[in-house]
């Protein structure tokens, strides 16, 4: 239940900020996408700050907090061998069907 109250509070805060910026919800697509990017980036501030305070460099902190996979998902060319093998297996099964 606590997570729902926190989510509602965050939504109210964003609504107040939108009102102050004179943007109506649902926001125009570009404004909404920039806002989502801000949310994703903002989520990374605390984990990276913790790593920095632990004495790690910025690049190391970024990597240890797993920021890139969180913000960008699985990027092309960065798939693990296991996921590549599973995709190849699925393709093979589809061809034989």
Strand content: under 5%
Give me the count of strands.
0
Q: What sequence of helices (H) and strands (E) makes up the elements? A: HHHHH
Low-confidence stretches: none
Number of helices: 5
Major sheet characteristics = none
From the N-terminal CA to the C-terminal CA, the straight-line distance is 47 Å
In short:
With 97 residues, the chain is mainly alpha-helical. It is built from five helices and no strands. The mean pLDDT is 75.
Write the layout of secondary structure elements.
Blueprint: H1 2-20, H2 29-53, H3 58-64, H4 67-72, H5 81-96
InterPro entries: DUF1427, XapX_domain
Region (Disordered): 76-97
Organism: Bradyrhizobium elkanii
Structure description:
It is a single chain. This protein is mostly helical. The protein has a domain at 31-58. It contains 5 helices and no strands. It has helices spanning 2-20, 29-53, 58-64, 67-72, 81-96. Helix 2 (29-53) crosses helix 3. The longest helix is centred in the middle third of the chain and has 25 residues, at 29-53. InterPro entries: DUF1427, XapX_domain. Residues 76-97 are annotated as: Disordered. Pfam families: DUF1427. This is DUF1427 family protein. It comes from Bradyrhizobium elkanii.
